[in-house]
Amino acid sequence: MSFTSTLNITDKQILDACRVIKLVGEKTKERSDKSLLEEDYTVNVEIEYTFDGKRKNTPVKIVLKKSLFNTEDGDSALLIVSNTAEKVKDLLKEDPVSGVSKVVTIDKLRSTFVRYEQKRDLLKSYERILADEAIVPMIPSVLGKACMKAKKHPVPVKLDWETDKLKKNLEKGLSTALLFVNCATTTSVRTGKLSFTDEELLANIRCVLATAFKYIDSNRIASICLKFTGSVAIPFYEKPLGSLAEEKEKTPVKAK
């Protein structure tokens, strides 16, 4: 059973929201400084829900139909590994992955990028951060607030020492979005860009919703909307107020 059929969300509802968010983007660019006119805003799917007490400590990976990562736009990726940088570099020299421009060990990251400004500038240099899935839990303590503010959470990838599998895993990581399910009441997933066609946005939104349904009970979802940084929310699903109140009453209360 799909997420959209459970909530009775039609393609038309989603497409209407896509068209509106793109119009909002055009108006925003018209009001912006000229230096920002070429900026391609990232469209996020934002899900508001009541937390059921089942926290997922690691992000959920969602492989999108159309990647936000595009080397033709000059996008590049940083790959963070443990102590195997030389081996990975050798494999990538043998069979390069387009867009993965730098490989660094977490120890090198920790010793070289110490100040907040250094970490911030590093993150600005790359559109995507990939990391060996074995060391992902360590990275927040190394990059800290800079990573959170830049909203560039590392995408976990499995480092396989067979060249073809390594390449496949890294390419999949470049097309992956992350879903966080924790004790917050809202989660946001980077889903597309304003330059995408309506159909491309729709396909990516379907991917996000199908995965989200596996981790968030649809009965607890209050609303689903599209947004980009600084924009108003454009909803394409809102739960009836009566049923939302019933779900809030069922939400477990943590003991103090």
From TrEMBL:
<dbReference type="InterPro" id="IPR028364">
    <property type="entry name" value="Ribosomal_uL1/biogenesis"/>
</dbReference>
<dbReference type="Pfam" id="PF00687">
    <property type="entry name" value="Ribosomal_L1"/>
</dbReference>
<keyword id="KW-0687">Ribonucleoprotein</keyword>
<dbReference type="InterPro" id="IPR023674">
    <property type="entry name" value="Ribosomal_uL1-like"/>
</dbReference>
<dbReference type="InterPro" id="IPR016095">
    <property type="entry name" value="Ribosomal_uL1_3-a/b-sand"/>
</dbReference>
<keyword id="KW-0689">Ribosomal protein</keyword>
<dbReference type="GO" id="GO:0005840">
    <property type="term" value="C:ribosome"/>
</dbReference>
<protein>
    <submittedName>
        <fullName>60S ribosomal protein-related protein</fullName>
    </submittedName>
</protein>
